[in-house]
Amino acid sequence: MNQMVTPKFGVGAPLRRKEDAPLLTGKGIYTADYMPDGCLHSVVVRSAMAHARISLENVDDIRAMEGVHLVLTGAELAGKTMPCQVGLKQIDGSNYPVPDQPVLCSDEVRYVGDAIAFIVADSVSAARDAADMLEVDYDPLDVVVGIEDALAPDAVKVWPEFDSNVAFTFGQGDAAKTDEAFAKAAKTVSIDVVNNRIVANYMELRGCVAEFSSETDRFKLTLGTQGGHGLRGVICGILGLEQDKLQVITPEVGGGFGTKMFCYREYPLAMIAAQELGRPVRWNGERMDHFVTDAHGRDNLTHAELALDADNRILGLKVHVKAAMGAYLHQFAPFIPFVGTSMSSGLYDIPAVFAKVEGVYMHTVPTDAFRGAGRPEAAYLIERLIDKAGEETGLGPVEIRKRNFIRQDQLPYTTQTGRMYDTGDFAGHLDKALDVADWAGFKARQEASAAAGKYRGIGLCSYIEACAFAGGEEATLELDEKGSLTLLIGTQTNGQGHATAYSQVVAEEFGVAIEDVDVIQGDTDRVRKGGGTGGSRSIPIGLPSVREAGRTLVKKVKELAADRLEAGIEDLELDSGLVRVVGTDQQVTLAEIVAEAGETLSAREEVKQSENTYPNGTHVCEVEVDPDTGDVDLTNYVIIDDFGVTVNPLLLAGQVHGGAASAVSQALCEQTVYDEDGQLLTASLLDYRMLRAADLPDIHFETRNIPSTTNAMGIKGAGEAGTIGGCAAVMNAVQMALKDGAGVSNLVDMPATPIRVWEAIQSAG
Predict the structure, then answer these.
(1) Which segments in the chain show pLDDT lower than 70?
(2) What is the pLDDT of residue 1?
């Protein structure tokens, strides 16, 4: 048997991140570190009420305050609105109306945190003092929070001009076919699940610095993003600018998770102020701003039913998702539950599916994409439903899955919602996960826990997701007169390690170290175009273009070197900045080749793919519950994933660990709570519990890869997968622990906080 050799630099090499040194030594530059000369500071006055008519009483007095340079209100910004960029057809084929979200509210506010005024002053403290002095007269209106309350027939309408609080109704699959499947079912199983609203809470809070040059008639906007090109397009649309009038600079970014993909009101406001004042304007958000302004994630109520035949094979699936939109339709918000329901059937061979989605308005912060963006919600639903089917049929969680998995000989397989799974071995990674987690030995561990007065449970989730969506990402590789290599690409790192991963491929093509490759992202003037980072796209979509650009540039270099060395191209090799004739001492440096060419050498390529990639895998989680306190302790966590091709095992493990931690945090801790007046009760990290390092056991992670056929390098996206597989595995384990230990028969849903778990135990007697 041949042993696989780990490459030194290229794809598959477990290289440490080259970008870490400046970050760990405090030399990284973030938005908050950027302070141009003459910079002014700003704050946003936000609504203190969830729903009210408003008027501003003393704006002129505030403008006259010492140190205040500008006060913008809705009166000055009439007609400027924040866009929703999703246009999907409803079930009946109609378009859904999209209400205006003003950049600044002038007469009515619809959630606590809605923006009312923008104040610019000499200092942050001066701007805050002015904001505190601004008199906002609130005429309170009725409020509705909570999905079911918003859908009640007599509910307060967030938008009275609409018939109800239903923002849109989408459908996927075949309703009639699914009804026929249910009509011939031997058994049906149903479930109702909650996907709790969560707040991203990245380490680096949002901020921006806007500058305007009257000489060039151009703006420069510095801020943390997940892609400057897309953000530039949205901002220019709001302000009526041509895109060449705005340069977006993204320095280091301290976390994104989807939530830094969007345009927020502070960005156009700072630009308007910078142009009007002729000075740079800076806004830095605080943690409270994040809780009441940045888009929230998840927040679904879902009912689903499964139809089974006499052999417990699935005949059909019905899904009804009620997805909270908040007070407005945020930038990509309607697409999130839509893409989620497209993955409703998971890994299972289900011949009839119909999934319905209703978006729901209520007086809360708008929702949008958060890590996984619809796919975690879909995996959570189907994997909890399958567990329940295993319980009600007596097959148990393993056999019900194996009996209904899509088999390898059925691949490629097109689901009833149009997803085309190309490769995988679903039973294979399930078996491997069960073996590593010692599923067979669980009963003995459960008995030992019982003897110690604890409840033990084990749960699993076998997931699949769609990511690295169809399209391409342009990569430009340059070789300069010093022999230095520079890659320009329009994805955007938020901590994933792009510079290392991209450099590995360039280094492999040129025979140099990864430190010899400079990676440029985050400058819309230097990088011609870009799709940004989201949907686990950067490496699977970007890397094939990087590789192709590398190969094209290597060919150019060899053609020039062949003339100089009087050798055939096929006789040349690149290594350590040199081009050599193989087997001789004839060589020339890369710098000499560029000098002879008289200009920087470059190659630009964009490799496109026409279908998504579909990573998949199995998570197994084991928990122990203390019945006296309700505390849930994770004792073991195993992940076996299929990511097609592994580019860098260290980077991959980091992404999977982080995603799984996010899922565990949602499952056990995170809880966004509004009171009946629409006040956010969990608006700080004192009230909003997040996972701590001590809450996680060591995670066993390994891959069982089958290359993708839709991606040029066989890669399947990995950045969100840990989040997608995690919640159901945790909650299925908690459910087993409470059922076996305390006889809890009702579904326990997220978050399984100690008080909720304790109350479930008490209610079971």
Answers:
(1) 1-7
(2) 33
453: left (phi over 0), alpha (psi -120 to 50) or beta: left
Cis amide prior to 751 (ω within 30 degrees)? yes
Place of tokens 């919640």: 727
Which helix (H) or strand (E) is 271 found in, with range?
Answer: helix 266-277
d(CA 372, CA 385): 20
Q: What are phi and psi of 529, to 5 degrees?
A: -155, 165
* Element of type H or E holding 703: strand 699-703
- Judged by DSSP in three states, 196 sits in coil
The dihedral of CA 538, 540, 545, 549: what is its sign?
positive
DSSP 272-315: HHHHHHTS-EEEE--HHHHHHHSPBB--EEEEEEEEE-TTS-EE
481-486's contacts with Cβ under 8 Å and 24+ in sequence apart are: 481/591, 481/594, 481/595, 481/600, 482/591, 483/577, 483/589, 483/590, 483/591, 483/594, 484/516, 484/518, 485/510, 485/512, 485/516, 485/517, 485/518, 486/517, 486/518, 486/519, 486/520
CA angle 158, 164, 167 (to 5 degrees): 75
Nearest 10 degrees: Cα torsion 548, 553, 556, 559: -80
Contact between 564 and 537 (Cβ < 8 Å) = no
C-alpha–C-alpha distance, residues 31 and 205, integer Å: 9
Structure tokens at 317: 């699936």
Q: CA separation (Å) from 234 to 82, 119, 566?
A: 8, 23, 53
Amino acid type, 256: G
SS3 45: strand
pLDDT given for residue 7 in this prediction: 61
What integer pLDDT is reported at residue 186 of this predicted model?
Answer: 98
- Whose tokens are 């969680």? That residue is 397
Give φ, ψ of 515 to 5 degrees. Answer: -70, -15
Torsion of CA 532, 533, 534, 537, to 10 degrees: 100
- Pairing type for strands 517-520 and 485-489 reads parallel
State the Cα angle at 283 between 373 and 272, rounded to 5°.
Answer: 95
SS3 of 202-268: CCCCCEEEEEEECCCCEEEEEECCCCHHHHHHHHHHHHCCCHHHEEEECCECCCCCCHHHCCCCHHH
- Which string of DSSP letters, residue by residue, matches 592-615? HHHHHHTS-EEEEE--EESS-B--
Residue 411 sits at φ, ψ, to 5 deg, of -85, 145
Q: What is the pLDDT of residue 273?
A: 98
CA-based radius of gyration for the chain:
28
Taking only the tens place, the pLDDT of each residue in 577-628 is 999 999 999 999 999 999 999 999 999 999 999 999 999 999 999 999 999 9
pLDDT by residue (tens digit) across 670-695? 999 999 999 999 999 999 999 999 99
CA 262 vs CA 66, 293, 429, 462: distances in Å: 34, 12, 36, 31
Structure tokens at 519: 């990676």
**Six-digit token string for 172:** 């996927």
Element holding 81 (H helix, E strand): strand 81-82
Residue 510, C-beta contacts closer than 8 angstroms, at least 6 positions apart: 485, 516, 550, 554, 574, 590
